[in-house]
Amino acid sequence: MASVEKKGAEAQPAARKHDDGAADLERVTDYVEEIDGSTEGIVDLVTQLTSRRNQQKAEQAERERVLSRVTISKEDVQLLMTELEVSKPLAERTLRLHDGNVVNALTALVNS
Q: 56, exposed or middle or buried, with CB in 10 Å at 0-12, 13-18, 19+?
């Protein structure tokens, strides 16, 4: 009879171990459910970031269009290039940023 009692005592820890596994499985499924529920928030954030980036690109394109309309003289570009030894694109851009004002462009390039 003692051997029967030992078998019964050994069966209980095995059953408890099995119950622990079920509890672990329950925790995993709860975690997965939390992740599944939070993906909607992630999708919303990605959508917001994408729209913000598109808006910034549109604003930058508009700014470039406005800058391209500013008239600058070739002599002013040449002056900046020779006096400050800067590239032509940099001289043109700086002049456009300062509405074609060569004095302000020179000051900006010297201070940068």
A: exposed
Which tokens is 60 given? Answer: 């930058």
From CA 77, how far away is CA 94, in angstroms rounded? Answer: 9
Tens place of pLDDT per residue across the chain (112 aa): 455 555 555 555 555 555 666 667 666 666 655 555 567 778 888 999 999 999 999 999 999 999 889 999 999 999 999 999 999 999 999 999 999 999 999 999 999 8
Q: How far apart are CA 92 and CA 103, in angstroms?
A: 13
**Which residues lie closer than 8 Å to 59 by C-beta, 6 or more apart?**
none
